[in-house]
Every structure is written in structure tokens, then in C-alpha cells.
Amino acid sequence: MQRVRVSSQQVPVQKLGDSQMTLSPKFKLAAIQSRLLDPFVESELSLRGEPLIPGLPDDIALSCLLRLPVASHSATRSVCKRWYQLFANKERFFTRRKEIGFQDPWLFVFSFHKCTGKIQWNVLDLTHFSWHTIPSMPCIDKVCPHGFRSVSFPFEGSLFVCGGVVFDADCPLNLVMKFEVQKNSWTVMRKMITPRSFFASGVINGKIYVAGGNSTDLFELNSAEVMDPQKGIWHPIANMGTNMASYDAAVLNGKLLVTEGWFWPFYVVPRGQIYDPRTDNWENMADGLREGWTGSSVVIYGHLFVVTEHERTKLKVYDMNSDSWKTVDGPPLPEQICKPFSVNCCNSRIYVVGRNLHVAVGRILSLNGSEKNPSFLVQWQVIEAPEAFANLTPSSAQVLFA
């Protein structure tokens, strides 16, 4: 039951319409802000001839202002009433960007404070290299950040966070939360059929797939399910055939690849499963693929790349024809990027987020067009995070366009 604190201080009560009623400075400010956010005010100010930027037509000025990074909005909205109209309402700002056709990549990093365990999302604007935050997820406190899984629909500007586990209780969750960049808010979606943590996830043909993971008392699951975000309803799919938690997963050639992953010391050979939604069938992963999957993966140019965690953090790529892995030409991951890693990609670039949220951006170059013998080169650039992130550890990362 939620407790509500009631103040014992007695104050005079004024009736609506009482001519003696006055607004306190706090309420006056709220009333002014509410008035400024009224969409009719923007039209009114425009009709009065108040320009967005003196000397520029409004359409050109708006195109300039919509390029400003989110980190500067709190300062810029105090310039004038029309700027307040534009920058004080995130939904209106991103709606105008969408209308004009702007789509810039942002890296959403789910992280936690290594001392307090507090979870949060930090966003790196990959155009301006500036950071900002988004509202907190509507979930319970004291959850394990590594138990969640997140997937995204980059060009729709939305991401989904599923599952999770409560600290000290080994209690998996079936939560599903959706964040939309345009609205700058979270929505609680219909729950998964089965509570799970440390599971596989991926997006295939616009649908979200989850599989395996840990259940109550850390027993491993073999169940899997799918959700169409347009309908918001989860449906079971074929069982995996083996009970397993997931270290990493990827979508390649329309199939969901799930690996148990190598863990030090290497006592046992990892397991791996592949799901084909066209046949609703699971099959065992090829030996070379599962045994060489020693890190976090991305798919670029239709090939599976892995940032290795045991081989001098080199980048390697899987050759399906020979069922083997090849080292990508170029330097290893920069030393500033320390484990644990969170990895994602966009077009031909791979983003590796390390401890303290330093980010390595790797540009992947294809050296030849041969499908039988592909060859690649990686070039790294480091984006150092602010000192305020010194105690943050990444758990996952997603690229969205906004």
C-alpha cells in the first residue's frame, strides 16, 4: 500500500472564481509555462511577426534549431517564448524533426552504478558526441541489470526492455517496457508468458523473439515466445529442445542464433541453438560457430562479427562456408575500453561501450566483394565519456534514430 504524507498545516481555502484568490509565485510560474506550451501560442507569436531567429525565414530557422543537441535544450529554451515552445516539450520537438525528415543515430546505453547498483539509461548523440538522459524505466527497485534483455526498432525510434531478475530473490520477471524517442516516455506493455532472465532476444521481420534463460531458482528454460509490437500479444513458439540460458544472441539470415557462450575456466564446450521462424524449428548450431563465439556479436554486411573477450580483444568474423572464424585486419580494441562490454552496430559501424561508458567506434571496411573468401578491416575511434560516468558499468546498448 502506498503511503501518503498529509501536512498538518492549515491554509485558507479559496473558492473558484473568488475575486480575492491570488496565485503564489510557484503557481504563477506553472501557469505561465502551461500557457507557453499551448500550441495556439506558437501560432499567435508567429502571426505577431516574432521570428524564431531574427533575419531568417521561420522554415530555415526551424531547420537550424531542430539540429541542436538535447543536452543544450534546458539553456536554449530560456532565449524567448518561441524557443521555449520548441524546446520545453520533447514530443513536439521530435515530432517537428520527424516532419522535416531528420534521422540522426543515438546510442542508448543501459548502465548501472557499480557502488549503489542504481540503473539508468544514458544517450550518446552520435552526431554531436554529447550525452543526455531519458526518464527512468517504470520497474521495481533492486533489479539485476544484467538479467534484462533489450531490442530496438532503430528507424521507428523505439526500444523494448524485457524480463529481468530481482536482486537477492532469484525471482525472474516477465516485464515488458517500451520507450519511444518521439514521446520521450516509457509504456508498460503486456507481460511475457514466462518470467525469465539472462535469455536470448532478437527482432526478425518486425517481431520480437525471446528464448531460454533462467526461471525461478535459476533453473534453465527451454521455452520461447514471440510478440508482434503492433498487437502487443505474446505467443509461444517451438521449444528449444534443450534447457539453456543465453550469453549472447544474433539475427543472421532471418534466423535467431543463441549461444551459451564460453566462460572461464573452459570446463565444458558451450551449447548453441538456431531458430528458423519460417519452419518454427530449432536446430543445433554448427561446431565451429558455437566454439568460436567468444564475445559479443553484431551483424554487418550480412556477416557475424564478434568482439572477443579472451583473444586480446580482437575483432573476428565468422565464415559460414568453412565454419570457422577469421581475425579482422586492423588494431585490437583500444585499451581505454575495458570489460565488461556492450556492443551494437549501425550500418558499417560497430559501437563498443566499456566500463565508465567510454565508447569505441569501429568502422568496418570490406576489402573485397567475394562471398567465398570475405576480408574486412576495422578502424577504431574512441569517444571518452564525462568524468561523471566514472562509476558506471554498461549492461546493454541500442542504436535508435531520432
TrEMBL record:
The organism's place on the tree of life at top rank: Eukaryota
Name by which UniProt lists this protein: Uncharacterized protein
